[in-house]
Amino acid sequence: MHSLLNIVREAAQTGGKAALSVWRSGGGEEVGVGKGGDVTLRGDLAAEQAVIEFLKKRVGDFRIVAEETGEAVFGEGGLTFIVDPIDGSRNFKRGIPVFATSVAVANGSTLDHVKAAAVYAPALNLELYAEEGKGLYLNGQKVSPDRDRGERVVAVNSTPKASSLPHALALILSAKGVILRSLGSACLELSLVAIGSLDAYVDPWYVTRVVDVAAAVLLAKESKTLVKMEGRLNSSPLLSLDERVSLVAAADPDTLSLVTEALEKLGLYI
Question: pTM of this prediction?
Fold first, then answer.
């Protein structure tokens, strides 16, 4: 078998290319509801099916946790692949190129068991990948992030599912001179912290699914990003579509403290 890293990279590229092909043809129409409960786009189906078919040929026996298919076992089972065919579906639907295919592989039941991961943003020509203990790579080059950019730029997940909390947090952080962003793709925003383009990603609302961030969490850890994370069902988030995650990632201790203090003013503790 090829290395786990090669497998997740090729799987993410396969799914991303399928998504890009549909995106270019205007394939943002809704075609149903996935196992995760969200609206399914034609691009979601094309990308996820491309990943699954690739894994069937390359791996054969595996378990999958995926946004559309849900939790399934192929062959005799084995390693778990966590797949988000299009993270950033609203962007995809509206023609915004900020979306990615995310694939991770684990040898256990929680996010702590992820061993290799890849995030591929085809419209942006960005490929990020990592294997546990071997560092983070961006488009083939090992990354040593520049963590001293002066001003702080922080991304906040402003999902409506968190009601007004993200906007209240944004006001608190803005008052402290923080530049705010909300890009609409959890795996890409977390990946941008990993490579040093953002100083923090804040998503403590327990609404994000494991499939959205499974790959990017490993990328962040491999770049020495500070990650505080907890699942609603388990302290180390379970590899399950039922799991919801609270997550804050920061480039340095001072930024983490700044975000933590802002959250505490809203009665949120991480």
Answer: 0.95
What Å distances lie between residue 217 and 16, 75, 192, 229, CA to CA? 19, 28, 11, 9
Contacts of 114 (CB under 8 A, 6+ apart): 82, 104, 105, 106, 132, 214, 215, 217, 218
Contact by Cβ (8 Å): 149, 196: yes
C-alpha 238/C-alpha 256 separation (Å) is 24
pLDDT of 1: 43
Torsion, Cα 212 55 219 217, to 10 degrees, reads 30
Picking from 142, 170, 187, the residue at the C-terminal end of a domain is 142
Domain limits for position 45: 4-142
Residues 38, 133 within the same domain: yes
In angstroms, rounded to a whole number, what is the distance separating the alpha carbons of residues 84 and 212?
6
Q: How many residues does the chain have?
A: 270
Are 255 and 132 within one domain? Answer: no
pLDDT tens string 202-234: 999 999 999 999 999 999 999 999 999 999 999
Looking at 82, 115, 142, which one is the last position of a domain?
142
| Angle formed by the axes of helices 253-265 and 165-175, nearest 10° | 130
